[in-house]
What does this fold into?
Amino acid sequence: MCLSSAGDDSRWPGSFAPHVGWSARNASAAAAGPKKITFYYYRHDGARCYAASLMNGANKLVSSLVGIFVSAVVASATPPPVQTLSFNDNVGTASAGTYQTTDTFSVDVYLAYSPYNASNLSYWLEVPTALAPFISITNVSYFTFGIPNSGVAGPATLAFDSISGADTGFLAETRNLGGSSAIPVFSGTVQVTTLTFNLAGAPTGVFSLFSTNVSPMNSLVTDSFSTTHALGQATYAITIVPEPSSWNLLALAGASVAAVAFVRRVRA
It folds into this structure.
């Protein structure tokens, strides 16, 4: 015969009407008064008894439902993480600059992120293969995340010469330009670096400078719980124009061609 067990619980109803298939011992335990009772019943085919603790099961069900509800409320109230890099040379339009073929120029790099606190930033840069031999990074200054991931700050000579981590048609520099902070930084928009670039006889045209997002150079932010958040690809448009001396030579050449044509017409 199945045994029944009882425990104090004033919430249990004071009466119970056992149905066919319940043992007499179960029925007498149910009639004993307000109790938390584990009821056992026989299956009609005479197989072994199965038990169900009604109160404990109800309590667990309620606890589970409350936990699910609270988790759903917290999840719906917390916006998804967002993080972006941006570039600005503080001249004219943000995220774009115009330079001559042998210019040296500086670009500030900003990180915007929410709704978490960040402890580390990692990022690399890439340029089109047509521009790569003529551009380099010559200095890196750190802000906010002031401990360089590379262990080096200040003057540098960083060439764009790696296909690793670069998109097709681009070459990347290989130094992690990000840094870390000993104390997590509250969400917001912060300046992270100032980069100095040098052009060495670069071809004229418009070129895109990108942050990388190809393994093993995935640009990302690490929060205070060591969770990483991928950065979208940031873009800076570099427009390169001829040097003034080149314009003078072109003007002189044009004037010479026009003069020759005029003399020929006169002679004719």
